[in-house]
Amino acid sequence: MRIYNHPVLGNIQARKKVYITVDGKKIEAFEGEPVAAAMFAAGLKVHRTTRKYHEPRGVFCNRGRCTDCVMKVNGRPNVRTCVTKVQSGMVVETLKGAGNWA
Amino acid sequence: MSHHKNSELVIIGAGPAGLSAAVEAAGHGVKVTVIDENDRPGGQLFLQTHRFFGSRRHRAGVRGFQIALDLLEEIKNYDIDMLLDTVVWGIYPDMRVTFATEGKKKDFIFAKNILIATGALEKAVCFKGWTKPGVMGAGAAQNMMHVNRVLPGSRALVVGSGNVGLIVAYQLAQAGIKVAGVIDVLPEPAGYQVHAWKVRRLGIPIMTSHTIVEAKGDPAVECAVVSKVDENGKVIKGARMELPVDLICLAAGLRPFDELCWAAGLGMKYVRDLGGFVPLHGEALETTFQGVYVAGDVSGIEEANTAMEEGRLVGVVVAEKLGHIKKQDTAVLKNEIKNSLRDLRVGKYGDNRADAKKEIIRCFTAICK
Fold first, then answer.
1. B102 to chain A: nearest residue by CA?
2. Closest Cα of chain B to A77: distance in Å?
3. What is the CATH number of the domain that holds B189?
4. For chain A, which residues make up each domain, given as ranges?
5. Total number of domains constituting chain B
6. What is the CA radius of gyration of chain B?
7. In this structure, which of B105, B191, B192, B295 has its CB flanked by the most CB atoms within 10 Å?
8. Burial of A24 (0-12, 13-18, 19+ CB in 10 A)
């Protein structure tokens, strides 16, 4: 859910709407916002699962420091979605275990 | 964008301390380079929606994010070399600062002076289920609401009643989120009364002597299990409560973002009242590595006001060192800043910080004699 109107910050400035896919599902996003923000707005909170116990992980620090939000983006693994900006047509996938660059 | 291979002052971190140092130093004619890992300067100021308080000098009545915008306006007046999306990963004995910019080759710059102003990191609180999606730092929630303009949840629990916890509880409520409560293991709220009362007036309970035992839910958080604790912080049997929340904000304290300090080989000391390991520094904020200074939360967790004053002090000290200011003018400026810092370190909380800072300076002086 997005905060279009905030009592202190006012209205959101106009932004260009684009679409990205997350595990094949098309979701709306705004150009320039982090992938993690678009996912959260769409109610998607699981970004990856851990290697050994397959535990779900998602946004934790939201500033590019903890790497809990990493996913596969346009085929590239281990991308920090909280600091990576959305681009039209981006393909985002849940990362299962450790990312492999091979 | 071209940048210099040599710099008179390389500032690492473009938060309130770093930007204030940049403005002060550049104002005196110093060639300044500022490096920040984010895509815009301003640091954590952009997360703050409340009005700062204190004196007019300390920008009382101005909201945190507005102070950031004001600083960004000020730096436009100077020819400051600004490297964004850039992580500094090394500071070498020959004063080389090595960094990596997103999408570019690794690079470095030789610095005559370096200011480490990397700020703070949140402390982690570990409990069963803390790794589930829905558990995030307080700053993470603030960023999600105020920068990304996305709701981080619909029903929240805040863990920690220091100023960060109290302020974020208020901010969550402002964004329309139902806050089940603010819990703290201590018997009294740890932050300022003014923030505690703002929270209480909203009907949000501050549950002191409580701890979080577990975060439940599959795959994301659906409820938090909290429990009353005794005077030793131990869970009291039979005193558990389940709170239906989908967001648990951890606000258990900040600690200096000290990674570069360790990498640079600075003398460090653990000081509980300043949040953790702090680089030893003198009154002029110079560390055990000559030519390397620190300012802001990295030199001890305080507030944005002290960060800005410390940044200014380093700006003055470096400008004087490089011969850009006359000695008589420096004394006046330095005194002005030192008096301001003294005024900010008063009261129940300020006294502790003042003592802790004095202790750091004492240790530094003993080592560097």
1. A84
2. 16
3. 3.50.50.60
4. 5-96
5. 2
6. 21
7. B295
8. exposed
Residue B1's pLDDT is what? Answer: 43
What does the pLDDT average to over A70-84?
96
Q: In which residue ranges of chain B is pLDDT below 50?
A: 1-2
The answer to whether A62 faces chain B, any CB pair under 8 Å, is yes
**3-state SS assignment for residue A96:** strand
Domain closes at, from B219, B234, B250 = B250
Of A3, A59, A83, the CB nearest to B136: A59
From chain B, pick out residues whose CB is under 8 angstroms from the CB of A6. Answer: 145-146, 149, 174-175
Helix (H) / strand (E) element for B164: namely: helix B163-174
Q: Report the alpha-carbon distance of residue B259 to residue B13 in Å, rounded.
A: 13
Place of tokens 């000098």: B57
Which residue is associated with the tokens 């795959």? B219
d(CA B250, CA A72): 27
Does B102 fall in a domain? yes
Kindly report the CATH class assigned to A5-96: alpha beta
Name every chain A residue with its beta carbon within 8 A of the beta carbon of B141: 62
Binning chain B into helix, strand and coil, the percentages to the nearest 5 are 35, 30, 35
Q: Give the range of the structural domain holding residue B218, as residue numbers without chain letter.
A: 124-250
> Given an 8 Å threshold on Cβ–Cβ distance, is A3 in contact with B175?
yes
The answer to whether residue B359 is domain-embedded is yes
Residue B103 is predicted with a pLDDT of 82
How far is the alpha carbon of B170 from chain A, nearest alpha carbon, in Å?
12
Residues B226 and B278 in one domain: no
